[in-house]
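Can you give me the bound-state structure? Components:
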Amino acid sequence: MKKLYLVFSFFLLLSASAFGQFEQAVAHTKVIYIYNFTKFIEWPPDYHQGDFVIGVINASPVLLSELNKLATQKTSGNQKFVIKNFKSVEEIDKCNILYIPEGSNNMLTEALKKLHGTSTLLITESEGDAKKGAAINFIWKDSKQAFELNKANAEKNHLTVSSSLKTLAAVNIE
Amino acid sequence: MYAYAQNDNLSNAYSCYQRASVDSAKMFIDRAIKEDINKNNAQAWCIRGFIYKDLYKKYETGKIRSASRDTAISDLFIAYRLDSVSQENKTNTYAGLDFLAATYENDAASNMDSIHFHEAIVAYNKHKSVMKRIKHITNINTLDVQFYDALGEIYSLYFAGVNDFEQKRKYLDSARKAYDAVLAINPDDYSANYGLGRLYYNQAANIMTNLPFDAPLPLLNKTQDTCAHLAKLSLPYLDKAHKLEQLKIEPVKGLEGDYYLLHSTDNYLYYRNLEDKLRQQKNNKEDPEVLQAKYNEFITLGDNFLKIKDYEKAKDSYESALQIRPNEKYPKDQLQVIESIIGQNKK
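Here's the bound-state model for the whole set.
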């Protein structure tokens, strides 16, 4: 009787390798944070007109994809989310949120100049950025994505931060 | 096989069997076996076993729940038990049982796919049961490893394919049990280590990517805790799989993902570079600029790991740098420093 041991092995060759989701998982986490921020922060009336613009400087394809998913699934009140991916500081125009990912951190100073006098919520993700002008800075704490909040930086831009957000922040920069 | 039979029904059955008239043989043997004279007659049970074996071959080959095959096995076991005299008869009976056990094994193997695997489990358990009873179990562990590795793989595919949380949990548990069964036999089995590591990793990535955008932040926090826990569970299995098969890219990719999820940047970069290196080895391509960048990154990693006294990874990193630039002095010096520290620590 011929035995078919090979068949057991054959299916092992079919093993589905699925190790590609880690960047998506982390990007998704950030976008959940960003969406939550829109609920805890109040923009001045002129930022309630038109679309709710989330700008990113040099977003990775994975992050951009997650932000675009958000835009198709959710709104901020009556405002539609519009995602803008800026290649440089010069390209930045009016947005409710500007997110500077870690890889574009060298543009922070220029971006702060560009945003002066606007009511854009500035989100960054590099150590010390909440002290340099960002209202929210993504950090990692205990193997988790968390955020630092600098309420004063937000208020400088006429944004009203809910006290609840303060309790949810891992670090509050006074 | 028996040279003759002792009464009409039995001799008729045997005669039909020899002429391959298996249906007629069945009719006679079923009558014969009910006769008092044959109730404890090893020959009668043996002939019936072989007739039902042929009935199975004629009508039910490939059918997992074959009544003929079950009857054949049962009859041959009775014959084996009753026959205390003839070694030749025992050898024949044994050969019949061995054949039927092998048919279960074949059925298990040919049903080991994502649709029929429940049948494969039934067949495999029957195969094992027969093999254990005829005490011919020398290779059962090897076969168990193959079988449960394949089963774990199928449950993993189901786990990845369903969206329902409860279903996912069910398949995760089943896959884990299958791989655990393999590791209980052989803790160094690559497929089971890799499979379990991938399973935990996938669960971590899945629960995070499936969290809705409007999940409240406390829930996000809790989910991240679970995700980190699962990534940590995944690590030792993928690490073992990597050590067992150092040239395979998949475990390295998994370790890269685990460390990314845990935001362990140096470890993430270490495995990302290793993945690149393995891919490059595979593709046998060498871009000088890319190599220089890799060299620099391995040096930085080596320095970082040395700082935190992870000498094994520091050594690996400098050695990887040296593989790219074999004549560079710095990584050689650093390796000497590490060797000296390791030597002192041993004292």
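A couple of observations. Residues 217-244 of chain B form the longest helix (28 residues). Chain B is about 80% helix and 0% strand.
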